[in-house]
Each structure stands twice: as C-alpha cells, then as structure tokens.
What we know:
By secondary structure, the chain is an all-alpha fold. It has one domain: Methane Monooxygenase Hydroxylase, Chain G, domain 1 (Up-down Bundle), CATH 1.20.58.220. It contains six helices and no strands.
Amino acid sequence: xxxxxxxxxxxxxxxxxxxxxxxxxxxxxxxxxxxxxxxxxxxxxxxxxxxxxxxxxxxxxxxxxxxxxxxxxxxxxxxxxxxxxxxxxxxxxxxxxxxxxxxxxxxxxxxxxxxxxxxxxxxxxxxxxxxxxxxxxxxxxxxxxxxxxxxxxxxxxxxxxxxxxxxxxxxxxxxxxxxxxxxxxxxxxxxxxxxxxxxxxxxxxxxxxxx
Length: 211
C-alpha cells in the first residue's frame, strides 16, 4: 500500500496581517498608558515590555517569510505581501522607538501634547486593524476604504498637532535642552502616524490592483 500524501496547509497571510496589526495596537495602547500616567521610575521596565512586543512581532514576521519562501501560490502578489508585512512591522518599530527615546533622552515629565499624540496613535492603529481585518475580503468589502480614509484622516490630525506642538515648544519653552528633547520626541511620535498611513497606502494599492 502506497504512502498517503497529505497536502500541506497553505499559510494564512491575512491572519498574519491581523496578528501584526494586533501587535501595533498593543504597542500603541501600552505607549499611551505609559505617557498618560508617566512615572520616570517605571521607564526601564516599560522599555523592556515594549521591546518584548516588538520582538514578538519580529518573530511572527520571520515565520511568515519562511512560509512565503516555500509557497508556490499566494493570494496576492509576493511583493505586496512583503511590503505590507514590512510596513506593519515598521509601525511597531516606530512606537518602540518613542519609548526608547524617552529613556535615552532622560525624560522627567511628559507634556499634554505628547499624550494627545499617543491617543492619536491608538486611534490610527485601531482603524488600521479594522482595515486589515477587512483585507481578507478586499474584493467585496464595503468598509475597507472607509477605514483606510480614517487612517489618513488620523495622520492629518497628527500633522496639525505636530505643527501646533512644535510652535508652542519654541514659543513657550525657555529651556533649550527641553526644546531639543521634545522636538526629537514630537518627530518620533508623528512618525508613528506616518507609518500607519504607509500601511493604509499599501492596502489601498493592493485593492486598486486587484479589483
């Protein structure tokens, strides 16, 4: 009697994208909590916790890339899978970078503008997660475009907050050291929203190419 050959189960890329979006939401929520109830004594542990989230996201990405290397047929173009995976990973990296900079720059207190930025990042990641959830059904989804637009809107709000925060920083903050520190951090916070928009742009591009 011949051996039975069991067909290898195809890797679920859409499920992977949702997992990655979940890591982004987890990182954003953690950052918002750290900034809204800022305690300098907790920063070292918060850096470690954030790094663990980032590491988990990296592990998931490497697992996906190993599967992709052996996959013959993919639900969307391989280049799009790789680009979307990298951009989702970039969101988590950007959020972790904020936490790292808070530690490296020895931040002692957090202004309300930074908390507002973190809340926008939470909103952007939440909309991103909804867009990614719908991505599996992108050919017939009636809501994916709405979520993409909301990510873009959140990024635009971030641009406005960035301008206002930078203006207030140089108009009202007399301490040059704090100016330099928060100029750096506001740029890092704004970059998180740019990273979210990059993911939304890839999703929109894939939808346009395949519908």
